[in-house]
Design a protein that fits this description.
There is one protein chain. By secondary structure, the protein is an alpha+beta fold. 14% of the residues lie in helices and 34% in strands. It contains seven helices and 22 strands. β14 (242-247) and β15 form a beta hairpin.
C-alpha cells in the first residue's frame, strides 16, 4: 500500500546563493559553501529526490512512478505526463541578483524538443528590508523596442521592479521576463523543466573569469510582451482551512495556516497532493505510519490516499499543491 512519501532534498550551489537555507530553515547543505536552491521534490533526470521513509526508502521519485503509475499521481495526470513527474518543488535563497531570464511555454518547448515549458509561482518566505525582484515590463512593450533597449545596455530601464515582503505571492507564467533580487528566501512551485534562457547576468564572470553564457536569440522568441494590470497575486489567508493562491493548468496551490487539527478529504481529487513546509511543524496522519513535516521539507501524498489528518505543534503553514 502506498503511503505519504518523504524525500531527501537535492542542494544546488549557485553563484548567487547564500546561507538562509541553513540559518532560517535549519537544513545542512554541507559541503557546499553556499546554497542557492533546495530541490525538495524533483523528478528531473540526474537530480531526482530520493525517498527516505517506509519500504520504498532509497528509491527515486520517477522509479516509483514507473511502478505505481496512476496510483501515485492519479489517472488524468498519468495519462498526460506518463512516467515523468510533472512538478518541481524548490526553496530558493537569493543572496545576489539572479540573471534576468525567461522560460519557454509548452508550445515553444515542444518545438525545440526540450520537454515541457516552465510556468512557476513564488511564495516569499523571508525578505530583508528593501528586497526587490523583477517581473515583467514597466510599460507597453514589443520586440523592436525591447531590442533597442537591450542593445543600448539600458534593459533595466524597461523592467518592472517590485518591493517584496514576507508572504507576498507572485505568479510567473512562461514567457514573463523575471529575476530575483538579493535578500529573498522563497518557495517555488513549477513545471518540471530546467530550461532557462539567460538575457542579462549583471556582467558576472564564472570561477575561471569567463562571462556567463547569454541566450539572446532563444530568449527573444520566448518572451511574452503582454502588459498586465498587476504583477502581484493577491490572496486572503483563512485560518484552519485551505486558502487559494494559484490555480492554473499546470498546478493548483493553496495555503494551509492552522493551529489545530485539520482533516482533509481528497476523495474527489484525481491527483497526488504535495505538502511543502514553510512555517512550524506538523504530523501527517493517514492509515499508515505518521510522518512529520517542517520548513523546507516536502511530503507527497499518493493519489490513492483520500483522507489525511494534520496535527500542528503550534501555528503551522504548509503549501498544498496538486493538479486539478
Amino acid at each position: 500500500m502506498l503511503y505519504p512519501l518523504k524525500f531527501k532534498p537535492v542542494y544546488k550551489d549557485k553563484i548567487w546563493g547564500g546561507q538562509k537555507i541553513r540559518t532560517h530553515l535549519g537544513l545542512d547543505f554541507s559541503p557546499l559553501p553556499n546554497c542557492g536552491e533546495l530541490w525538495a521534490l524533483s523528478g528531473v533526470s540526474g537530480c531526482q529526490t530520493e525517498i527516505v521513509n517506509g519500504f520504498l526508502a532509497g528509491n527515486e521519485l520517477n522509479e516509483i512512478l514507473e511502478i505505481y503509475m496512476d496510483e501515485l499521481v492519479g489517472e488524468k495526470v498519468f495519462e498526460k505526463h506518463q512516467t515523468e513527474f510533472p512538478l518541481l518543488i524548490k526553496v530558493i535563497d537569493a543572496n545576489a541578483y539572479l540573471s534576468i531570464q525567461v522560460h519557454p511555454d509548452d508550445k515553444l518547448a515542444a518545438l525545440r524538443k526540450i520537454g515541457s515549458g516552465k510556468t512557476e509561482m513564488w511564495y516569499i518566505l523571508e525578505a530583508e528590508s528593501g528586497a526587490e525582484l523583477i517581473t515583467g515590463f514597466n510599460r507597453e512593450m514589443n520586440a523592436s523596442t525591447y531590442l533597442d533597449f537591450f542593445h543600448q545596455k539600458r534593459l533595466k530601464e524597461i523592467l518592472n521592479v517590485e518591493k517584496v515582503k514576507r508572504d507576498d505571492l507572485f505568479f510567473i507564467p512562461a514567457g514573463r521576463v523575471h529575476a530575483l533580487g538579493p535578500g529573498i528566501l522563497l518557495a517555488e512551485i513549477q513545471q518540471t523543466s530546467d530550461t532557462t534562457y539567460r538575457i542579462f547576468d549583471w556582467d558576472r564572470v564564472d570561477s575561471e573569469g569567463n562571462p556567463r553564457d547569454l541566450h539572446t536569440d532563444l530568449a527573444l522568441e520566448a518572451i511574452d510582451f503582454n502588459f498586465p494590470d498587476s504583477y502581484r497575486t493577491h490572496y486572503r489567508p483563512i485560518m484552519n482551512q485551505s486558502s487559494p493562491l494559484v490555480d492554473c493548468p499546470y498546478f493548483t496551490t493553496d495555503l494551509l495556516t492552522f493551529d489545530r487539527k485539520m482533516e482533509k478529504d481528497y476523495s474527489i481529487l484525481d491527483s497526488f497532493v504535495i505538502y511543502l513546509g514553510i512555517e512550524g511543524k506538523a504530523i501527517i496522519r493517514t492509515d499508515n505510519d505518521p510522518v512529520s513535516i517542517k520548513p523546507g521539507e516536502a511530503i507527497l501524498l499518493p493519489a490513492t490516499i483520500e483522507n489525511t489528518i494534520l496535527e500542528p505543534d503550534s501555528t503551522c503553514k504548509l503549501l498544498e499543491v496538486y493538479i486539478s
